[in-house]
TrEMBL record:
Origin superkingdom: Bacteria
Chain's gene name: sixA
Region (Disordered): 1-20
Enzyme class: hydrolase
Native source species: Pseudoalteromonas haloplanktis (Alteromonas haloplanktis)
Protein name (database record): Phosphohistidine phosphatase SixA
InterPro entries per the UniProt record, alphabetical: His_Pase_superF_clade-1 (IPR013078), His_PPase_superfam (IPR029033), SixA (IPR004449)
GO MF annotations in UniProt: protein histidine phosphatase activity
Keyword tags: Hydrolase
Amino acid sequence: MRHGEATPMHSDDVSRNLTSVGQQQAEKMGLWLQKMHAPSGLLVSPYVRAQQTAEAVKKNNTFLFEETCQDIIPEGNPQVAADYLETLIALHPECDTWLVVAHMPMVSYLVDQLCAGHMPIFNTGAVAQISYDETRHKSDYITINAPANVDA
């Protein structure tokens, strides 16, 4: 998931907040996620707008595992992030559906690392759906859903 709409860039990208629209996007996608996927594992960027997005999603979802991860920041290494996510999946079998809340371009690059040849562009608040087969360490890209295109 890409974070919701954020305030314009200033001198400190890390501290940018969600706008009221971004908060609404995150809440809407949180409702949609609860109805469609009920994620139980959460990995979130330390940046304020991603943390705020995760908090909005958590209003309607219960996570068995949550972690803030320095590897999923905008300039992070997508291979490291994908490897770390796969490690968490293996270590936490109680979590059958995972949500990663991060940024462009990381979210696009992460999808490409998991599903080679698929690098969707994420609108703010959008969620890409991926099916992951842990036994084969293989992922299949399903689709991407944006707040404007879902019913919550």
